[in-house]
Write a structure and sequence with these properties.
Elements (H helix, E strand, L loop, with lengths): L1 E2 L2 E2 L1 H4 L7 E2 L6 E2 L2 E2 L4 E2 L5 E2 L1 H5 L8 E2 L5 H11 L5 H18 L13 E2 L2 E2 L1 E5 L2 H8 L4 H7 L8 H8 L8 H4 L4 E7 L6 E7 L1
Antiparallel strand pairs: 1-2, 3-4, 5-7, 6-8, 9-10, 11-12, 12-13
Amino acid sequence: MTFKYFERPDLYVGLRDSETACDLCGQSKLCFDAESFFGQEDISSICPECLASGKLYDRDIFTCEGDKEELVCQLKALNPSWTESEVEALATQKTNELEKTTPGLITWQDWRWPCADGDYCRFIGYGSKPLYNRLAKDMNGEAFFKNSFNNQDSDIDDLWSEYLPGQEIRNYEDSNKYGVLFYVFRSLHSDRVITIWDSN
């Protein structure tokens, strides 16, 4: 199960333990828990098919918040001949797609979904030293980790040495063992990786 902006939500969010009625199609199936979604409407369950096909577009419900302000800046830089309205229209389209068709990522703090190269990034998993070493390819894993931070004021040296797990976090259940988590996102259009971290 892969969504455009979320790789393997079956591992990193999971579905409800048993079949339940999807609030949008009414069918009984394994669904995402939708009780923590944002907006003025409330639903309790949504099936992967309804979420992926955009059934939330006509509802005042969204699963996350995209960093639209940064996306607008990137789109302007990439398309200097575009008008303000053209940039705004594409940023709105991409933000709606993110917020209305992406599984909700479970976090302790509220933060905006990152973007790179003029689009929102795909969440690929929880950070660990083995993951960054693998993503770094020919680069040093620690240096790659430090370069992945995007405007977060932190002592990154301490994060690597004291808080970043030494073994991979393979799923949401594994993530519950840690008081600090690193959320790893990759650009859809390049090898750029962005890390956001928070703590309980």
